[in-house]
Amino acid sequence: MNWRDMPEMDEAADQIQGPATGLRQAGNGLLLVDLYELSMLEAFWANSMAGTAVFEFFVRKLPSSRGFLVAAGLEQLLDFLSGLRFSDVELAYLRESGHFGVRFVDSLAELRFTGDVDAMAEGTPFFADEPIVRVVAPLPQAQLIESRLINLLHFQTVIASKAARLVLAAPGIPLIDFGLRRAHGAEAGLLATRASYLAGFAGTATLLAEPTFGIPVFGTMAHSFIQAHDDESTAFERFARVRPDRLTLLIDTFNTEIAAQKVVQLAPRLQAAGIAIAAVRLDSGDLVEHARKVRRILDEGNLSSVSILASGGIDEDQLQRFIREKAPIDSCGIGTSLTTAPDAPSLDCAYKLQEYAGRPRLKRSEGKATWPGRKQIFRRYDADGIMIGDTVALESDRVPGEPLLQPVMRSGRRLSGPSSLVETRSYAAASVKRLPADLRRLESAAYPVEIDPRLKKLAASL
To answer: What are the Nicotinate phosphoribosyltransferase N-terminal domain coordinates in residue numbering (predicted)?
Structure first.
């Protein structure tokens, strides 16, 4: 029996939908928040606590498998803050939910973000204890945005940091995001395309990334297309005649080397029809050995122009092996290891109150202590432009180095229009090149981050 046919389940479903009807359309709105944010807002409202608050987002410590992180997600955060408001549907739900007083809910109708934001540019490498975003706003506003701010900055930073490592592991090999199907949800899959492209990937297989972000899209075929045919060569030819542009044939469904020979046999017939085979794809087995054998078969068959695309569980270690063993692999599709970042899928990050009503604030919790006040990161470089050390200091103190936090929003308004992803990608590439050589080689190395003595003195005095 379908559960909808059961009266008691029908009633439960009505109760679930009830006042929430239409909330799916507002799924990216202000109910996408932890309950305690609104609970605190009601307490702030009841006690007229709306003084200026300073919050900072930072990572407490780097994962053991990361020598650096790459800041990402700022663009989506600024979009969120620019449009911050409760919809009528959301307010109706809150009134009828019974969680909050009606007068408090009514007050939320006028809520907008009117604060200031300073941030590191997306694509900037950073380290532990370095705030990458600072929010200065009335306390209720700054508090309400906590959950979504962390959600946006954390995820894209995880993916951009992983993607940067993958790019560094395979210099000269274009990498393509194949990870949508393993991503933890639709938004994660789409934002992963942006974060990976920002960090140096050549493109993605996720079609929606092209109209959304202008990211180049690439596609091949699935094994099911081959399996649906009684003959592998017929499958290749049918696909080629329908999809001749940038034609890539998947050749490991049955026997990789035999399939490569079939490609050689098919090529003259396709050439006569004006169709060129651009690449073949390997997706299983020892990719280095298969690539060598396939390369030889293609070259001997006068198909030296056909490139080899590898995919299938590829991570940094395999990419470094490809380079070390000079495997004839021309490009790679990276899926699971990119969009799930299994070696470091989460960061020990936080968004914490550092100042309220003009007074510095800190937290002394064991293992989670914070540095108080509005801070700035000053980065120093050697004569060749390579990073040599950072200092975390109070914003009001002048310290040698380049200040990394820059104004991006004032009084709730962006200081510039949406950033160009192409420009952000170029900036990220240039910034990663300025990392010390051992970090670019993905070796275990500690980058020096100092806490300014005046900041230490302030923390001790509170």
So the answer is: 31-153
Q: Which CATH class is domain 20-160+344-461?
A: alpha beta
Residue position matching structure tokens 């190395």: 445
Q: Are 85 and 91 in contact (CB under 8 A)?
A: no
**Percent helix, percent strand, percent coil in the chain, to nearest 5:** 45, 20, 40
Tell me the per-residue pLDDT of 198-256, one tens digit each, with 9 for 90 and over.
Answer: 999 999 999 999 999 999 999 999 999 999 999 999 999 999 999 999 999 999 999 99
Name the residue ranges covered by the structural domains of the chain.
20-160+344-461, 167-339
pLDDT band at 10 (very low <50, low <70, confident <90, very high): very low
Distance from C-alpha of 280 to C-alpha of 275, rounded to nearest angstrom: 14
CATH number of 167-339: 3.20.20.70
Which residue type occupies 283? D
- Are 171 and 323 a contacting pair, CB within 8 Å? yes
CB 182 within 8 A of CB 339: yes
Classify residue 198 as exposed, middle or buried by CB count within 10 Å of its CB (0-12, 13-18, 19+): buried
Cα distance between residue 335 and residue 350, in whole Å:
28
Q: At what angle do helices 186-198 and 421-433 cross, to 10 degrees?
A: 60
Contacts of 257 (CB under 8 A, 6+ apart): 290, 293, 294, 297
